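Hi support team,

I submitted a single chain yesterday and got back a structure, but I'm not sure I'm reading the token output correctly. Could someone confirm the output below corresponds to the sequence I sent? I've pasted both exactly as they appear in my results page.

Thanks,
R.
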Amino acid sequence: MTGTPTRLLIGGTWTDAVDGATMPVDDPATGEIIRRVADAGPKDARLAEDAAVRAQREWARTAPRARGEILRRAHEILLDRAEVFARLMTSEMGKPLAEARGEVAYAAEFFRWFSEEAVRIDGGHGILPDGRHRMLLSRRPVGPCLLITPWNFPLAMGARKIGPALAAGCTAVLKPAPQTPLSGLALAEVLQEAGLPDGVLNVVTTSRAGEVCEPLLRGGRIRKLSFTGSTQVGRLLLAQCVDTVVRASMELGGNAPFIVFDDADLDVAVDGAMTAKMRNMGEACTAANRFFVHRSVAEEFARRLARRMAALVVGPGTRDGVDVGPLIDAAGRAKVEGLVSDAVERGARLLVGGRTPEGPGWFYPPTVLTDVRPDSRLTGTEIFGPVAAILTFDDEDEVVRRANDTPWGLVGYVFTEGLARALRVSERLETGMVGLNTGLVSNPAAPFGGVKQSGLGREGGKAGIEEFLEYQYVAMPSP
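Hi R., thanks for writing in. Yes, this is the structure output for that exact sequence:
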């Protein structure tokens, strides 16, 4: 960790903020400052934008194979240094090392996937219906991009945005989350080592996001925004894109339903629940938020889930045997505490957890609640913590209606042994993704994204690179 960059990357040079400002990076397991990094302001952002604009033409003309080879080398470097990156992530974000190692592999796979997609960008040629003209279709990079990443998967979300942008021939300014800037800076260093030309990727770390991002979006030279974060912030950014018609893709909040029918294999359902709820300590937009369990199996499901949750070991992510690390910060833990307290006050019953431990760090225990009232605050917001809230239902139509009764539509989970029901309910859910008898949907080869207020566009899969490409159509007379 000691060799990790702490300065801004602008035009291929690591540099301090123009005004010399720095900001702290905290270890959520202790609350102590572990590093200080450059804190960019508007002038730094404009310099980064200048660098991306200057590099755009030459990078767009770079052979697709050459772009892909750089991403492929970055994939190999990440895997070679997996342990270093895992420990870096754990130190600034808190997740256990086992999960951090998994994220390094996940991030690296985005670089490999898009290294292969770079050479598959194609167009088309054909005779138009009138028979008098032909059309030539080609794909062009959309242009310089602003990439804004969250703190919960700092390495993977960086790779998921950088990979397709570079593969498509776009230059970029990356703004990592202020809680986890080190992973983004280290990722940029890897791409430098892999041979990325100066100015193609620039990184501005900042605690002044509004001051830094708004001028870029309103200035007219950034042509693409890719954002992962809350729906509230997403709306503000979309408004800033309007004047200059900046193309935007957004992966926003979720309120994932986890539906267990009476014919579900409960062992499979509980395994799925542990993955969908406890991955990343529940700090994931894909986390199961509302557990709808058929009344006839609800008590048994809750008992099994509580037993599994109670067995998890809570502690610093660097400690051997730890399953659950700290939440990201004091505000994140306070939110979870408030949601649980509200549910209990409304009549929910605690089966396990629900009590904040004493001592340093932002820890919260794995928690299972039953008899949760539908009007509890935690049913209408992302919990973003290790809390499973169980509600019961009686029939399929009822549960589908309740599952869809939310402004969000990122992912839903369905557990049933009936094929017809599985397909029927999956198709009725108003979500961009469905986990069918599985608690994990994320994969670099699959299109990740939601509907309604969960976002616009898709990341990953073949659709991921489309977000960074435009069509050009050339009409010509037929000979």
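A quick pointer for reading it: The mean pLDDT is 97. Let us know if anything else looks off.

Best,
Support desk
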